[in-house]
Amino acid sequence: TDQVLALGLANLLIARDNFHTGFVTRWSNGPLLVRTDTGRFLRQCDIDPSGSKDVLYAQASEAGDLVAFDANSGRWLEREAEVVLRSRVDVRTIAGNIPCRSAFDIYADAAAQYPADRVAAITGVVEKDLANAAAILGAASSVAYYAGNGVGQSQPATQTGRALSRPL
């Protein structure tokens, strides 16, 4: 139930907007757009036949403008500060208009499947303790976890590790 607990904590942090948006925007793939038809990141070669497979996109504004990210260098090619963390936008590609969502929007929806009452029912962690843990995490200037025994020894260890290490 570690994964459920991690997603429940993430849900509380996201719902309360109690995470460092700038950190998530700058240091995760959260703002990058994912094609809903393939589940893959939107790439420059999806839009332009001569484009790069290593240039990805995020939404720059509510109007739907795109901002390029170079996956090789790990740098925004323009206007980093303007990217939208929770995004849903239709993008005109070579194959036609494709609905896309930011990776963070997909993650937030996955976490929303685990409200506190459901987490309590599955894990046995009471809602009050879950809320207290989320408050502690949200107030911390930085958070880390130690991977090894326990969480790392379960069948869904890889996915649980991803849920725990997602920067919020």
Strand line-up across the major sheet:
1-6-5
**How far apart lie the N and C ends?**
20 Å
Mean pLDDT: 88
Amount of helix: 25-40%
Give a topology summary:
Elements lengths: L1 H14 L5 H7 L5 E3 L8 H4 L7 E5 L6 E5 L4 E2 L11 E6 L2 E7 H10 L3 H8 L3 H13 L17 H9 L3
Antiparallel strand pairs: 1-6, 2-3, 3-4, 5-6
Helix pairs in contact: 1-4, 1-5, 1-6, 1-7
Describe the protein in words.
- This protein is 39% helix and 17% strand.
- It is α+β, with helices and mostly antiparallel strands and 168 residues long.
- A hairpin with a 4-residue loop joins strand 3 and strand 4 (75-76).
- The chain is elongated, with a radius of gyration of 17 Å.
- The two termini are 20 Å apart.
- The mean pLDDT is 88.
Explain briefly what this protein structure is:
The chain has helices at residues 2-15, 21-27, 44-47, 103-112, 116-123, 127-139, 157-165, and strands at residues 33-35, 55-59, 66-70, 75-76, 88-93, 96-102. It is α+β, with helices and mostly antiparallel strands and 168 residues long. The relative contact order is 0.22.
